[in-house]
Predict the structure.
Amino acid sequence: MRFLLLLFLFISGTHAVSAHAATHGGTLQGLVLSAADQDVLAGAIVHLKEANLYTSTNEIGLFVFTDLPNGLYTVEIAYLGFNARSWTVQVSDHETKTVKFELSEKPLDLSDIEITATRRNPLEGISQLDIRTRPVQSSQDILRFVPGLFIAQHAGGGKAEQIFLRGFDIDHGTDIALFTDGMPVNMVSHAHGQGYADLHFIIPELAQDVDFQKGMYDTRTGNFATAGQVHFNTPDVLSNSFIKLESGQFNTHRLATAVNLLGDNLRAEGTSAYIAAEQMVSAGYFDVPQNFKRRNVFGKFRKAFGQGNVLDISVSDFSSSWMASGQIPERAVASGQIDWFGAIDPTEGGTTGRTNLNLRHFYSVNDRTWVKNQFYRSDYRFELYSNFTFFLEDSINGDQIRQRENRTISGYNGSITHQTKWGRIPVRLEGGVQLRYDDIRNNELSRTVNRRTTLDTLALGKIDEINAALYSDVTIDLRSNLSVHAGARFDQFQHVYVNALDELYTEKSATRSQVSPRLSVHWVPARRIELFAKVGSGFHSNDTRVVLADEVNHILPAAWGQDLGIVARPLSRWLVSATWWHLFLEQELVYVGDAGVVEPGGRTRRRGVDLSTRLQVLPWLFFDGDYTYTFSRSIDDPEGANRIPLAPVHTGTGGFSVQSKQWSGSLRTRWLGDRPANADNSLIADGYTLLDAQLTWSPILRKRNQTLDITLSAQNLLNTRWKEAQFETETRLRNELAPVNEIHFTPGTPLNIKAGVTFRF
């Protein structure tokens, strides 16, 4: 409570000081838009030449410079994929000058990426370039935009992917925070594991921006953001309506469409609306047909009530069902009992769905102060059938389990941002309040047979979990080339669990809090070089059943990290970055949803190097490459038995992309090196190298507002036999007398060719 009061006094006090200090000079406020569709350009770099000041546009395309002496100013604005422009603006004392700036689109030019100290995320330029040059085939591809992030699917196409990043086997989301349009994706106290994050409700064509940050250095993000965070943003304005048809091997078919609902005149006035839908079916490449089905519907409405006052509302509904072959033992394949794409229990699989409502309101109180309010709600359903040990526990019926739940997530995010000067130093203050409530019903783990018969219910209960947070952040631009971000957040969790299997009604509860300070410094010693240093703490919460299972000391285990890095442009069209990082994670307890037991995780330490390069070889040819090395160890275990299972050591991705008027495409490779499958490194998870390709032809149509794309793509172009997900598991097959501990795996996709046609109008 004392910390909450101190944060409130800090926000109130700095606001009062800044208001007193900002009483002289004029103010220049601008709105940056795309000339073609009047969409806001968030993150555009703005340079006020005479004052040598830099800033960037916020989420609704606004920027502001305050306390400017009377005179003429040159405003230079740059944004990747748009023509950089400059304007001359007269600013007078005690006057707010409000100007709308429009940029026209042009072919991509890597030299347009500005290196400045004002960006909170120094790697933002890389993500902006990648989303425009690399094709997105599926929701899984969206995650691969994060350099060094690898994913694996191990239970059919409907289950959330297993994620690897910075030496973490993140499982389905324990140590990475995922958001879409500011709405959290991760699920706390999920039936299948803490942090479970299913992104399949995002229609890939609507992934307009992917903003990633590694580490836990952004005060606006709390739970799960230890290895990193990723924000996916859908377009506020749909540039063109489209319909897309795809068909490929393994009886895979997909239809996607998006349609503008309002005309150009309303869009020019700041009002737009569109609806999009996706339907996909696939038999899959396994011996037992996957019978995968997915349906997505998404709609968005946006209304601008004058400059700086914007409301957007989005609604979506998603459902999916599938069969799965699960993880299979190496010995069953080697003996010929099953083939590479076979199954021991062919009845695995599940169903899931999610309905979202997301409302955001951005409001300018005055030319220096912005307020953001967001309300969201998700209704979620999940049922999953798995069999990890086959006949180890039950030699007659087998070890199939069912995990299921229904939940409602309700949340609010509110923030206020104030921009001013302390003397001659530009300062931006931000304070925020966040609230999330998860109402989880019928959270179940049961033993089943063939999906139909329930043998035993191992866990069943109701969970209520509330996360309330308050954060404060200050950005100080000490000079035009030196910026400091400092802040802290306070998180409080309340856990309530009612075990439906208890004979007597018992409600267990616990409350815990966490303080997370963060600091980062960005320095641009030369025009094309940025150096940055970050330090801070974060955390991931534990499952409510872990918290209430026993009295433990580390309910909210903290993570401490530091990053030292450089972003440079040795040549105008060549961008490179390098980061050395270190991360320490406290002791934790982990609820293993597959077994219904609690296991200690122990303290861990990770350190590594991330390297990235982006090169525009020719005006139409781009190259990208990423490499990561990670050293990961458990601290409390003896040497030789302290490896972290499945933690990646070496990873690499790269490829060439073509961007021209009539042709676009890419040739890409991804490499994951061998890594330990258990603590003593006696079992190895095999690495792999894959090659993917895509080529799109866009013939010129007579009508300017209509385009046609014909696409041919190939996954695993060389038809490599590879293991996508791998685990050390002790299992017993039906006719075995004793269990065997060995690698179990899910086979990765063979050569998979797909063709598609997209018509935009």
In short: Helices lie at 2-21, 124-133, 139-143, 264-268, 330-334, 544-549. The longest strand covers residues 453-479. Residues 2-21 form the longest helix (20 residues). Residues 1-22 have pLDDT under 50 and may be disordered.
